[in-house]
Design a protein that fits this description.
single chain; 26% helix; three-stranded antiparallel β-sheet; Nucleoside Triphosphate Pyrophosphohydrolase; alpha+beta; 13 strands
Length: 220
């Protein structure tokens, strides 16, 4: 499992200055750096997971960025927090849980992936999500093939996959203008199949882009 690319990527996770710079490039114009934190004392703890899955149909590829992909989920519109948005599997810590335990529990609950199949590579920098007052730890993990997703209907309206090659392609990084409450501003996003990934998920993926780029696309 610990192929050379994954080893390099593991070593490039959670570099503080890189995280700061990468996230700044993907932050909405009116966020005023609030995602930097520090999180207030009453912030709730949460974790999300970027599960890199080996696409065996591309096993002959010499490009590890095309070989590895990860799931994203569309949240149902009716959810009170971040309804209708694209997110990573994850959620709030239960009593007595570590962040990693919460991440793999939520992955199993939302997409049906048993924790035994998941190998932790490391974590990205903590992120403060001021809109919902969460301090989030994003984990990066690997799985040796693409699981059969079993989405939980109450939390997942749709699941889709993105390759690392697509993720780092600058052609999919856009800065559309949004209008909220009469205010128009730029909101950087990553495009995927006519979807816009923005907000906290975009900030996390922005940091992953920097880590993947630093790891390099050298054949395993």
């Amino acid at each position: 499992m610990r192929l050379p690319f994954l080893e390099r990527l593991s070593g490039e996770l959670a570099v503080p200055q890189r995280a700061e710079n990468a996230r700044a490039a993907y932050a909405a114009e009116l966020s005023y750096g609030r995602w930097r934190g520090p999180a207030p004392d009453d912030a709730k703890e949460a974790a999300v997971i970027i599960l890199l899955c080996k696409n065996l149909s591309r096993a002959s590829s010499t490009d590890p960025l095309a070989l590895w992909q990860f799931p994203l989920t569309l949240r149902p519109e009716h959810l009170p927090r971040h309804g209708g948005q694209i997110s990573l599997p994850g959620g709030e810590l239960a009593k007595g849980e570590t962040h990693w335990q919460a991440a793999v529990r939520e992955l199993e609950e939302e997409l049906g992936v048993p924790p035994a199949r998941v190998l932790q590579l490391g974590a990205l920098a903590p992120l403060y999500v001021f809109a919902s007052n969460y301090r989030v730890i994003p984990y990066v993990a690997a799985c040796d093939d693409v699981p059969f997703w079993r989405p939980q209907a109450s939390e997942v309206a749709e699941v889709f996959e993105m390759s690392l090659r697509h993720l780092i392609d600058p052609d999919y990084a856009k800065q559309p203008r949004l209008t909220r409450n009469g205010v128009t501003f730029h909101a950087p996003c990553i495009l995927h199949e006519n979807r816009q990934i923005w907000g906290a998920t975009c900030l996390i993926l922005g940091e992953l882009i920097a880590a993947v780029s630093a790891a390099g696309a050298i054949a395993d």
